[in-house]
Amino acid sequence: MQKQSQDSDIIRQVLAGQQQAFAILVERYQHFVFTITLRFVDNREEAEELAQDVFVKAYRSLSHFRGESKFSTWLYTITHNTCRSHKRKKKEAIVTLEEHHEQVAAPEDRKHSKNVIQQAIKQLPETDAQIITLFYLAEQSIEETGQILGLSQSNVKVRLFRARQKLKEILEAEYKEELKHL
């Protein structure tokens, strides 16, 4: 609650003409926005550009923030929409598992474990991947995840349960050997 009230104080400052106060919000949420954008594009430079676009859009739209939800939820909605729009425009091919295996050396460390999980998440249906990303990586609540994706809380719970099951099946079926070595 403290963070939410601090966010609203900062927003009031920005709207009152102290634009430099927005930097506090950027610093506070840049990691989470970057995590979401990186999940969508899987390219660090492109994810950084998208994250910058998100903050520019948020700054320009700040006067439309009604405070009915947490600022982070509103910001992640912008992030989600920006990424989906970018994905539609670019229509990039998803790197196949075979290409991924050629690019990645033998499993060595935690970083590789994260890559394996990210590749498995990419195999999930888009909404399931978004739910997993928002709930676990961006640490959004069930309610916030529902607000961002336009789903009811009960729908998020059911889809989260099913997405975890699918993710487990993918990891066990396709990455079992790699996970043994981690």
Please give the radius of gyration in angstroms.
18 Å
Detail the poorly predicted runs: 92-98
Shape: globular
Please, how many helices? 10
Give the N-terminus to C-terminus distance in angstroms.
38 Å
> What is the CATH architecture descriptor of the largest domain?
Orthogonal Bundle
Query: What's the CATH C level of the largest domain?
Result: Mainly Alpha
CATH fold topology of the largest domain: Rna Polymerase Sigma Factor, Chain: A
Number of domains: 2
Main structural class: mainly alpha
Strand content: under 5%
Mean pLDDT, to the nearest integer, reads 82
Tell me the number of strands: 0
Note the run of SSEs as H and E.
Answer: HHHHHHHHHH
CATH homologous superfamily caption of the largest domain: RNA polymerase sigma factor, region 2, helix turn helix motif
Tell me what the structure shows.
- Helix content is 76%, strand content 0%.
- The protein is built from ten helices and no strands.
- The chain has helices at 2-15, 22-41, 44-61, 71-90, 97-103, 110-122, 126-137, 142-149, 153-174, 176-180.
- The longest helix is centred in the C-terminal third of the chain and has 22 residues, at 153-174.
- The protein starts with a helix and ends with a helix.
Summarize this structure as a short list of keywords or feature phrases.
mainly alpha, 2 domains, 10 helices, 0% strand, globular
Structure described in brief:
Helix content is 76%, strand content 0%. With 182 residues, it is mainly alpha-helical.
